[in-house]
Amino acid sequence: MPDGQTDADNVELRKVGVIPEFDFKVRDHQELGEMLDIIDTQRGAKVAQSGFYYWKGKGAQLVQALFFWTQRELVNRGFQLFMTPCLAKEKTLYGTGYLPFFADQTYALKDEDLALIGTSEQTLVGFHADEVLEGATLPRFYTAYTPCFRTESGSYGKASRGIFRVHQFHKVEQIIFCKPQDSVKYHDFCLENEEYLLQQLGLPYHVVNVCVGDLGAPGYKKYDIEAWFAGFDAYREVTSNTNLTEFQSRRLNIRYKDGDERGFVHTISATAMTDRAAIAILENNQRADGSVVVPEVLRPFTGFDVIEPVKH
Active-site residue numbers? Predict the structure, then answer.
């Protein structure tokens, strides 16, 4: 991985896709969400607090289609689908490396040994805590769609207009358990899946190799994909893909045996899809009248091709 201190030092590996050009004033997803009546941050703040929001109407249909389609694609690529708890014990958060390193990002329940998950990585990796896996069953490909909760402590002041940086979001995750000699291969496999999904959605992006200073403590090597957001006029992170080698498996005591071969499994944790991709779709697929074209692969699941502005 490259040396460096911040995300500015990450190294671009490649650009893919064509950045859209517009002959009208580009709107960001906050403006589009209001015009189309599909995102409501004001009522999200009223009901919960700032940083919570509603997808509604055709916006909710769009993101549900996005997540269902993503899960179907991953199942077709060999992943086993899960629905997991949305809470986890301190041991699980410690074992997966979120404690103590990201304690300030965690919503803990008062007087309970439980916290809301920040990713289904925590519950999917914790699934095999204190187990010995048969080598013949490796690799294991797991995926889940869950809500995710993060305090986003210390992130205020970053470009966060609209719903790009929020306290609750939704995510489809890729988790792989494999033998140590295979983790580099499956790290690349997850990246291939992420790129395939974005290409099918028609979203331009670039892949970056994350530098030492921007890498979380548990990670060995990490790739981020940043999609183009027309409203931001910039690339912004949409997926993150980390080879954790045996950091998590040592903490959670997840081993494997294959004849005389024994050891700790390696784990890969990689985003497949989040709400941010839906935001990119809104911004990149907008038209002059404020309508948004739905990516072709999602139309069988939405039942419509275009989201039109609401006439008041």
Answer: 150, 165, 237, 240, 276
Can you tell me the distance from the alpha carbon of 23 to that of 256, in angstroms, rounded to the nearest whole number? 58
The string of pLDDT tens digits covering residues 100-127 is 888 889 999 999 999 999 999 999 999 9
As a whole number of Å, the CA-based R_g of the chain is 20
CA distance 219 to 137: 24
pLDDT per residue as tens digits for the range 260-309: 999 999 999 999 999 999 999 999 999 999 999 999 999 999 999 999 99
Residue with tokens 């009522």: 43
Residues 6+ apart with CB under 8 A from 76: none
Question: pTM for this one?
Answer: 0.95
SS3 (DSSP) at 292: strand
Exposure letters 69-92 (e unless 16+ CB within 10 A, then b): bbbebbeeeebeebebeebbbbeb
Please state the φ and ψ torsions of residue 293, each to the nearest 5 degrees.
-85, 130
